[in-house]
Amino acid sequence: MALIALLAACTSGLPRPPQTSPSSSPTPTPTPSTSVPDPTTTPPTTPAAPSTSAKPTTAKPPPTKPPRPPLAALPRGGQHILPAYRVVAYYGAPGGDELGVLGGGTPDQAAAAVARQAAKYAGFGRRIQPAMELIATVAQGGPGGDGLYSKPIPASDIANYLAAAHRHKLLLILDFSPGAASSCPRFGKTSSSCSTRR
Question: pTM for this structure?
């Protein structure tokens, strides 16, 4: 008994061999598992957050053309002169009837005279639109101080005839005689079709 106890004390720190019974097969030594984890038990992975270093790009919308302004209404209705209307006009310049009957009186007197004359043309298939054709620049026999052979009438005269046209529902047509000037730049327009008259 003493010998057995000593052997037991000496061998207690050593690994003990596995005990097997005669009737059971030897237990295999476990090896590290290399099997693929079960997808049903694997926790889902969190997607990576988008990078904030890149600046977002926004596409600019294509430029759009501004809408066209609506056509102005004519004094006696509608927006188109021809072929809806027959225009009957008197012609002239302020200050006398040498250049036409339009200058033989005040703007209101001229407007009333045009309206009476235009009424005679009613009943021929078109509506009548009376008008005053005012000479806004008068051709001159000499070059004048600017060398253009043309003299504009005062802007106040044009304003008076325009006011009379509004009161009597007439059109006001401005007639320009540019002389030696290029007509478009002189009256606020530029175009490749403008040319200097000599």
Answer: 0.59
Give 118's DSSP letter.
Answer: H
**CB distance 94 to 153 below 8 Å:** yes
- In one-letter notation, the amino acid at residue 94 is P
160 Cβ contact list (under 8 Å, min separation 6): 107
**CA–CA dist 93, 75 (Å, integer):** 22
The beta strand positions in the chain, using DSSP E, are 85-92, 127-135, 137-139, 150-152, 171-175
**Are β-strands 127-135 and 137-139 bridged in parallel, bridged antiparallel, or unpaired?**
unpaired
Task: Report residue 196's pLDDT band, with 50, 70 and 90 as the boundaries.
Answer: very low
DSSP state of 16: P
Give the integer Cα–Cα distance in Å for 103 and 142. 23
Note whether 129 and 81 are within 8 A (CB): yes
Tell me the one-letter amino acid at 71. Answer: L
Average pLDDT, the chain: 75
Amino acid (1-letter code) at residue 172: L
